[in-house]
Amino acid sequence: MPFNPLSILNGAVDATGAGGSIRSAIANASQKTGIDFNYLMGQAKLESGMRSNAHSGTSSASGLYQFVDQSWLRVVKAHGAEHGLGWAANAISTSASGKAVVNDPATRQAILSLRNDPTAASLMAAEHASDNKGAIEGSLGRSATSTDLYMAHFLGLGGARQFLTAMQTNPDRSGAAMFPAAANANRNVFYDSTGAPRSLSQIYNRFAAKLDAAGAPQTIGATSGLSATRLGEWGADVIPGNGEESTSNAAVWAQNTLAQLSGTSSLGGSLAGTRTETASLLRPTPTTARLAYMMLATMGA
Question: Is residue 224 included in any domain, yes or no?
């Protein structure tokens, strides 16, 4: 059957199943917010093992990114309307004490249930990371790392600021002593196997190692370029082949597909000028077609 780019752009093909749907949701969130795809993937792996229906047994945390109730309501209030969730954002108000509230119980439950939807969860996680990135960098006067952002997700922005500021001056300080409520809900984070409390630097370094193992970059910026490593996250068999079937040629083909189908002009930049750029959009080589499909999905198509 001929490869049809329109079927991809219309969302008719999901060659990777449920896991691919989650990856596609994360890729869409990355493309829309500029938060790095690999960071969002790493966070989801660390938080929930890439399970959209994950629930914590010790807190209200739920979903792909394990948002607790209050954090979820706040981020939906701030960014829901930007992503088609205006009904949810409008239903959330802030009490005099600063708590996010929803007056109707059924509506509140419906909003909280969105945490288990990969698309909504990924978009809100990306927006949350973007907000935290700017706030942390403004507070610390340096670029935020992926571990900094993870601390903001884990402890909240205020807690992360306290944690990171204290770690700069007293890295050996007990994390459990600073954050007793978080320690009670996450004993494996704040205490070692013997029951001894971990220091701030030990907690931070353990999170950094886990994010590294999950493939999250420590430097967070705009969405990174497509690569064989990125495609590997999709479970694709990346076979560079000869020059006509290289990953870079597939990237050109995928981006030109988007450009021509949307009526825009030919692409420039570093990928311009390769032989694939002038090839027929409807007649890619089999390997190029396979790689381009993965890339189109990563671009959010």
Answer: no
